Amino acid sequence: MIRDFVERLALEHNRALPLYKRVCRPDGKQWAEYLRRHGNLYQMGTGCSILPSTRIIDPAYTRIGNRVCLGSCTLICHDGAIEMLYQRHHLRIDRVAPITIEDDVFVGEGAILLGGTTVGEGSIVGAGAVLRQSVPAGSIVMGNPAKVVGKVEDMIRFWEAESMGLPWAELIAKREGAFDPAMEPELRRLRQEYFFKTAR
């Protein structure tokens, strides 16, 4: 009852946000819905999953498409160095550029997207990547500075073949989505046994 009240305060009225995070512990889909309603983003599509630990520094210049998944990454549209340049060199310049994340993109843990970035639809930005460029649709980008290292379609073929050889492939074939809490205990047991070559 308290949880429902706190959730309603946050989602409907943008109030009690720290309490909402502590009591409700929103998952990526719930947090994305909060951001869609109250995050002041230029635009945000539907069906997204954004972890509460994601940092969107300049939401007014950030456009997020449909079904985007953001791990604990950072999006920064401005360059803070202009303050130092003004103080030291009396430069009056502007260094702000938008970030656009098109439909069906995944951005991994610790990645940083800088102003001027457009991530093409269906792309994957690897963990720890630092990106300030356009990424073609269906690309995999990694590194610092981030570079295109492959195509998502090639990775899919490789991962499907690899997954079919796992001892728990039959369970994965039955799973709806990327996570099923009912299956997780058995998957964990099988994975631990396989990874660490032990029987429990």
Overall description:
The chain is α/β, with parallel strands linked by helices and 200 residues long. It folds into 2 domains: 114 residues, Hexapeptide repeat proteins (UDP N-Acetylglucosamine Acyltransferase, domain 1); 36 residues, no CATH class. 36% of the residues lie in helices and 20% in strands. The protein is built from 7 helices and 15 strands. The strands form 3 sheets. Strands 2-5-8-11-14-15 form a 6-stranded mixed beta sheet. A hairpin with a 4-residue loop joins β14 and β15. α1 packs across α2. The two termini are 40 Å apart. The mean pLDDT is 93.
Write the layout of secondary structure elements.
Blueprint: H1 2-13, H2 17-24, H3 28-38, E1 43-44, E2 49-50, E3 55-56, E4 62-64, E5 69-70, E6 74-76, H4 81-89, E7 99-101, E8 106-107, E9 112-114, E10 118-119, E11 124-125, E12 130-131, E13 134-135, E14 139-142, E15 147-151, H5 152-164, H6 169-174, H7 184-196
Parallel strand pairs: 1-4, 2-5, 3-6, 4-7, 5-8, 6-9, 7-10, 8-11, 9-12, 10-13, 11-14
Antiparallel strand pairs: 14-15
Helix pairs in contact: 1-2
